[in-house]
Write a structure and sequence with these properties.
Length: 405
């Protein structure tokens, strides 16, 4: 029986994807509206507005290395339900917070549940997707996060023009209840835990999946390059006199990602990672390059399309490689390691590129990012060569063992 015929769109997969999508809609809606809330409603400064964003990122990054251990200890389904309830309670908290200090504390608390919850959803998705269709399946799954990049800011920025921030927070809380109910529908398969050599002791090597770390670290460099887009695209569009079309950038990004994902996901599974990852790095670089000298609406939106195909395909492909690098019982640790490095790449990029752009301007920043991504092609080429050589050696050893029996 051909394994590729195993279904992806099962009840468990749809349910966990919906949870993931709703969580990230909440995340990106708050990401874009809370700085405005701090400035306009709480009388805070721009720096305080930025701090409410950074606080959640920092706590999510700190908890990531421990997420795999937490999932291993409590079970993926149990931790999923606990963290989705805590995340929902945190979302309700914004309704009553009316001062900056408690808002920061709420963001810290929210970040802890966010870091564990998104690790749980990703690890469960990797479990419920058939092994032979993992690239395609995880491609569809991560698409929910990329769609939230469009839906969240659009929802938040549109509604705040017509309703109060409190109304927005109430609406987000109601939406999150739907996510909580979806989590209860998930029935993940529980993979037996690996036997522990030293019970009671936990080292850094236990928390971080060493086999997934190289690809996760390389992926953080891709996230670093992308952080310039997500952080500065609206400001850059305003500088170009394209503020009226800036909201369409991520819409075009999402559409091209949706159209290309099914084909490229199947290609990843059928032909291997090299034929997808290397071309998509070049497409991503081309999008950044075009963005660097965009002067009108057409070139601006074409760059969005290229970035949507390139970067939009890279994220699930690299996540799939990270999961494949680890043994099944270390799935949670591999997922946590990947997203820890990804978050670090975005956070570091947003901070460092923010400094760089004050000296170079946006055009040079995106041009430099394009060159940086092209250079990454060499790094990924070497990593994929090593992976291929390791796989070939593994098969040779198996053939020798089978022939000697």
């Amino acid at each position: 029986m051909n394994q590729t015929k195993q279904p992806i769109w099962t009840k468990d997969f749809l349910s966990i994807s919906l949870v993931h999508f709703i969580v990230f809609v909440i995340f990106y809606t708050l990401l874009t509206t809370l700085p405005l809330y701090v400035i306009n409603e709480l009388g805070g400064s721009e720096s305080k507005g930025g701090l409410v964003v950074t606080a959640m990122f920092i706590t999510a990054i700190i908890i990531r290395p421990f997420s795999g251990k937490i999932l291993d200890w409590g079970g993926k389904k149990n931790i999923l339900l606990i963290t989705v309830v805590v995340f929902t309670i945190s979302t309700f908290g914004y309704i009553w917070v009316d001062a900056f200090a408690p808002l920061i504390l709420l963001r810290i608390f929210h970040g802890l549940s966010f870091g564990i919850l998104t690790t749980a959803t990703s690890a469960i998705a990797a479990d419920v997707v058939p092994d032979a269709r993992r690239g395609e399946g995880l491609g569809y799954f991560t698409m929910s996060m990329n769609l939230a990049v469009v839906a969240g800011p659009f929802l938040g920025l549109t509604l705040t023009q017509f309703v109060s921030y409190q109304f927005l927070f109430v609406l987000l809380s109601i939406i999150m209840i739907a996510g909580t109910l979806s989590a209860f529908l998930v029935r993940p398969k529980e993979i037996p835990k690996a036997p522990s050599k030293e019970s009671g002791k936990t080292s850094l090597r236990d928390l971080i999946e060493q086999k997934a770390l190289p690809i996760a670290a390389a992926s953080s460099l891709v996230a670093f390059a992308y952080s310039g887009v997500i952080s500065f695209i609206s400001v850059y569009a305003d500088q170009l006199g394209l503020a009226s079309v800036s909201s369409y950038f991520f819409l075009v990004f999402a559409v091209t990602m949706l159209l290309s994902r099914p084909y490229l996901g199947r290609l990843f599974d059928a032909r291997g990672p090299r034929i997808v990852i290397i071309p998509c790095l070049f497409i991503f670089a081309a999008g950044l390059g075009l963005l660097s000298f965009a002067e009108g609406t057409v070139s601006f939106l074409i760059s969005a399309a290229l970035i949507g195909v390139g970067y939009g395909t890279l994220l699930p492909s690299l996540l799939s490689l990270s999961v494949q690098a680890a043994s099944p019982e270390r799935n949670s640790y591999a997922t946590a390691t990947f997203f820890m490095m990804f978050d670090l790449g975005v956070a570091a990029g947003s901070f460092l590129l923010g400094i760089v752009v004050t000296y170079t301007g946006f055009s040079m920043l995106f041009a430099g990012s394009a060159v940086f991504v092209v250079l990454l092609c060499g790094l990924f080429q070497m990593m994929l060569d090593k992976k291929q050589a390791s796989a070939a050696e593994h098969w040779r050893q198996q053939e020798v063992e089978s022939s000697s029996r």
